[in-house]
Amino acid sequence: MDAPAMTIRGDDIHVDIDDASILAGCSFDVRAGEVLGLIGPNGSGKSTLLRTVYRAIKPATGALWIGADDVWSLTARQSAQRTAVVTQNTSTDFHFSVAEMVLMGRGPHKGLLDGDTSHDRRKVAWALRAVDMYAFRSRVFSTLSGGEKQRVLVARALAQESRVLVLDEPTNHLDAHAQLDLLGLVRSLQLTTIVALHDLNLAATYCERVCLLDHGRVVGIAPPRALLTADVLRDVFRVDGEWLTSPTTGRDHLALTRSESSTTIETEKP
Amino acid sequence: MTVSALGSGDGLDEDAGASESPHLLGTWGYRTLIGVLVGVMVASIVVGIGAGAADIPVSTTIDVLLHQLFGIGAAPDPVAVQIIWELRAPRVLMALVVGAGLSVAGCALQAMVRNPLADPYIMGTAEGATLGAVAVLVLGPAALGGIGVSMAAFIGAMTSMLLVFALARSRSGYAPGRLILSGVALGYLFSAMTGILQFVSDPRELRGVLFWLLGSVAGTQWEDLGLPAFVVIASTAWLVLLSRRLNALALGEESAVALGVDVQRFRVQLMVVTSVLVGAVVAVSGSIGFVGLMVPHAARMLVGPDHRRVLPLSLLLGAAFLGAVDILARVVAAPSELPLGIFTAAAGAPFFIWLLRRSQRQIELG
After folding, report:
1. Does residue B160 belong to any structural domain of this protein?
2. pLDDT tens, position by position, A34-67
3. Range of the structural domain that residue B129 is part of
4. pTM score, two decimals?
5. Are the beta carbons of B251 and A94 separated by less than 8 Å?
């Protein structure tokens, strides 16, 4: 279980869907144990980039490395043993219990004839306790609130015992408390994590570094305050932004207002 | 429910009883139910063989069965042997096989399209199979390159399935609602084509085709039983082995990929297996709707959506259900027989409406 964390590396990834270029040469890396925030406007290619990480999309050219292996040299099952995913809003008409949902995380480790062992059930119990959802184990997943569902999916990722975690806008539809709660939990796991976020302040608070995408290209990867300069914010997000430091917590926050001038300014390429 | 102190015991012990699970039956309930259903099936075979136009006592039925199966006891009356062993036993077993097959196919389709409202008839799969079968019945095997009814039914089912998925495809994958709608539309189209074939068919053949279309296992011979029985058992076994993948697929394509399922390949495998299943069953029984919808639902209500339990339970429930329907069909208007499809539709249509209304609300459990 305590195997060393893995790195993720994307090399010049191109993805085209229906003749439209969605990713046009993305290179990035996620360091072992780091939480990398993936930010960018709607349609910039965040979800697509994440999907290349968990082997849901094969890039037209370029390669995605998890540890020392190209994900496409792994089988779907091997990839799932390394990488767990918290998908955007999982809803289902099938009324799986919370425990059954988390138990599915054991699937990638199972052969066709393997039953669920007491080891599996212990893992599930452990994972549910880790996300503080153990008391919900016999509830029906589809009846939970958005925040509770996301915690269960994180528990499933834990039960999967993967070393890489991918989250696609996990804070959508969550209230403020649940947002902070979930990202705090994700950080505490110390897994190699890549998380797509819409809220730049959440990214600034919970990620050492952020990767900014725009029109299918990586604008830059750097600590939030270094990357999200006034010029970049205006050019990519069309907002005016100012970094403020909280006098009580000492944390950096981004104050945003809608940009009045929509004239484009040449982006600095870090 | 007692919440154990942190660290003492894992609390997820599978034998901890129903309180650990939101589903009606826990592990022991499930096992007991399987045992009970096997008993019900054996009983329904004996009762089913006894029921019909000619009144035959249960003791005679048991004598004939013991003698034919194990050579126990004196040789019974040849007329009784003829009725019980040659006429009734194969049809009773066929009803069980067909009920099981339609139910298992329903389970697979519902997981595949992520919609509990799917079934071979709603998805157009069975209509495709029907078109293939009727084409052979009406036009003769020679007109279709010498293929048999079962093969034609399989080809029809597979064609329908491929078309449904092709029509429902979009950039973001397959939306469950769109899959159902494509299935319904294609089902109507195939039914219309079947209608045209009936219209042009010889009036003498038509009566047989019509009766077959309403669903019946009357006139089943022992040699008809082998292929569908094998297909139902083999495909159920295959699906049970892959039930973790079915569970993952029921959550959606992205979730399935995230859980290590090669979705493209698995979906193609499922299409082939379901088409074989539907083709084999429809070819021998005609149209028997709603079984594939109702039975998996009943199974999920009892044991929850885990396919490792839903599939075996659906197999047995479906067999028991259609076995019972077949007995009813012979008893209600004896000495004439009613088509099975009438009964399943009469029970199934209200069930479907209830389900539609229910699925609009969130269920409240736990």
Report:
1. yes
2. 999 999 999 899 999 999 999 999 999 999 999 9
3. 20-26+90-365
4. 0.87
5. yes
